[in-house]
Amino acid sequence: MRFIPPAARWLLMGPRRQLALALALAALLPAGLKGQEARPASRDAGDFASKKLPPGKGFRVFLVADMEGMASAVDTHEVIAGVEGERYRSLTSSDYWDRFRSLLTKEVNAAIAGAREGGAGSFVVNEGHGGNLFANVLPWELDPDAILVRGWPKPIVMITGLDESFGTLMFTGAHANAGSPGVMAHNFAFDDFTVNGKKLNEVGINALIAGEMGVSVSLVSGDDVLVAETREMLGSGFIGVVVKKAIGRNAAITWSPARVRSLIEEAAKDAVRRERKGEFAPFLMEKPYQVAFTLRATYPPEYAEGVAGLEGFGLERKSDRSFVLTTTDAKLIGHLLDAVEEVVLK
Predict the structure, then answer these.
(1) Which of 179, 266, 223 is nearest to 70 (CA)?
(2) In this predicted structure, what is the pLDDT of residue 19?
(3) Burial level of 4, CB count in 10 A (0-12/13-18/19+)?
(4) Own/partner pairs for 33-39, CB < 8 Å, 24+ apart?
(5) Is-contact 32 342, C-beta < 8 A?
(6) pLDDT tens string 152-211
(7) pLDDT tens-digit profile of 281-304?
(8) What's the Rg (C-alpha) of the chain?
(9) How buried is residue 9: exposed, middle or buried, by Cβ count under 10 Å (0-12/13-18/19+)?
(10) Lowest CB count within 10 Å: 14, 67, 109, 123, which one?
(11) What rounded mean pLDDT belongs to the chain?
(12) Considering only the top CATH level, what class is 59-190+197-276?
């Protein structure tokens, strides 16, 4: 058969077939390569958000694994891969990064081991850290009983896949809120985030979404600032594991990783036992939710314009970087987080 160069094949197709092929190729492009697209108010009606996790047996545990709040982690170079975007390329070190990914995976496995001892039968781990675009846990070292949700973008960033079938929600490696004196403290893409006037950190935001599904938080691990502020937000109804004491944004007094894993394992066992006895309650707030947020002051103006251009959320712009959302659906808050992350992680 005579070889026909691709460009010549394209010319021989004719306009109708050229259009069909162009549309097919466009459908295969990642969203980030298509520019800003209109986004529905709820993604549950179709696409990826309607997909469910495989069913689990027995008491189900949903675990969100972050990195800044891990044992010993104090510096950005330890939790960033350098592939998250141009401005992150110099914020990494392969030696640190590889080692701390391993520590992350071991903390997750410790939580699973403890939960299993407490009576849990199935486990889902959601990558909650934006480093390496939410692909930080080492799958080949993860407990074989666990299902892993990794990669990005995903419909409800940190708790994609969570539903009413889960018995409890746990957070490991969590960090304090933006503006708090915790190690590497931040809150998604925001300098400030409130619901009904109440400040919420990343744990609090996801606890609200989970609470609407009837799922309560039973365990939170991180530095002392994170655990204390989360108790103020959610109440005392969870087990807090302090893995280090913050003495600066990039400094801490910390336990050894091995000791921390032991603490997490014991706490997870206790958390499942207490959750099965009904000792924890879902975190709920009055509806409608009045969500107010301010984007980070360090972001360039085009990021704020990108958020202002998001469609389907009914965002009201209050200032250059501040917006308000009113909704009765906590999941919509999660979808908004995903949409904002798509604007700023580029």
Answers:
(1) 223
(2) 43
(3) exposed
(4) 36/306, 36/309, 36/310, 36/343, 38/311, 38/312, 39/310, 39/311, 39/312, 39/313, 39/335, 39/339
(5) yes
(6) 889 899 999 999 999 999 999 999 999 999 999 999 999 999 999 999 999 999 999 999
(7) 999 999 999 999 999 999 999 999
(8) 21
(9) exposed
(10) 14
(11) 87
(12) alpha beta
Per-residue pLDDT reduced to its tens digit, 236-267 = 899 999 999 999 999 999 999 999 999 999 99
Q: How far apart are the C-alpha atoms of 124 and 63, rounded to whole Å? A: 6
Q: What is residue 127's three-state secondary structure?
A: strand
What span, in angstroms and rounded, lies between the C-alpha atoms of 320 and 324? 12
Residue 154: is it exposed, middle or buried by C-beta count within 10 angstroms (0-12/13-18/19+)? buried
**All structural domains of the chain with their residue ranges:** 59-190+197-276, 284-344
Q: Residue 39 above 90 pLDDT?
A: no
Side chain identity at 9, as an amino acid letter?
A: R
Sign of CA dihedral 247, 251, 255, 261: positive
CA distances from 17 to 4, 12, 23, 28 (A): 17, 9, 10, 17
Strand partners, 217: 169
The alpha-helical segments, DSSP class H, found in the chain are: 6-13, 15-28, 94-117, 202-212, 224-234, 257-276, 301-308, 330-344
Could you tell me the CA-to-CA distances from 236 to 61, 178, 209, 270, 283 in Å, in that order? 20, 21, 18, 15, 11
Q: Which two tokens stand for residue 41?
A: 């108010």
Neighbours of 78 (CB within 10 A): 23
